[in-house]
Amino acid sequence: MRIKKVIVLDTSAFIAGFEPLSIQDLQYSVPEVKNELIVNSLPWTRFNAAVENRRLKVKNPKSDYIEKVKKSSKVVGDLLHLSKADIHVLALALELKALGKNPQIITDDYSMQNVAHQMGIKFASLMTLGIRYHFNWMFYCPACHYKYPADFHSKLCDICGTTLKRKPIGKTPVRK
């Protein structure tokens, strides 16, 4: 049996009802995904059953791929919207891609999809339509209107201390 692609599963895939035992493609996830699932819930049970049946490989990505994901997500302005699990799932997909695999991330998280698109990684969603546009973001202060670049390091305005908001400064259509 020929494996068509490698699938990397995010937490939202298990929550949305993805059943790893129902497909033949090679599947991966990261330990942080299991940590985001509620113990003894149906998604948690799906995760464990797939691991026990050797259908899901749980692997930590290498640190240099984690750093590449952080850098890429800063460029587009999504870093502050990604959890540790999100970053690790993206990093694992990037690592697998570097090994010559054809990975696809299964996630309904728009920020993850935006970063995946930025890095040239395929993605699919289960419960949503997925992103239609790849966005580049900027941060701004709603009080004093000061503008910050997408890779700004803080959630607070340096001038007045107000919580920053973000808005798109450019978009390109995503071809799926």
Based on the model shown, name its key terms.
176 residues, alpha/beta, Rossmann fold, 2 domains, three-stranded antiparallel β-sheet, elongated
The radius of gyration computed from the alpha-carbon positions, rounded to a whole number of angstroms, is: 17 Å
CATH topology call of the largest domain:
Rossmann fold
N-to-C CA distance: 26 Å
Overall pLDDT level: 89
Q: Can you tell me the CATH superfamily of the largest domain?
A: 5'-nuclease
CATH-defined architecture of the largest domain: 3-Layer(aba) Sandwich
CATH class of the largest domain: Alpha Beta
Number of helices: 6
> Which term fits the overall shape?
elongated
Number of strands: 8
Give start-end ranges of low-pLDDT stretches: none
Question: SS-based structural class?
Answer: alpha/beta
Note the run of SSEs as H and E.
EHEHHEHHEHEEEE
Largest sheet: 5 strands, parallel
Binned, the helix content reads 25-40%
β-strand amount: 15-25%
Q: How many domain modules?
A: 2
List the strand order in the largest sheet: 3-2-1-4-5
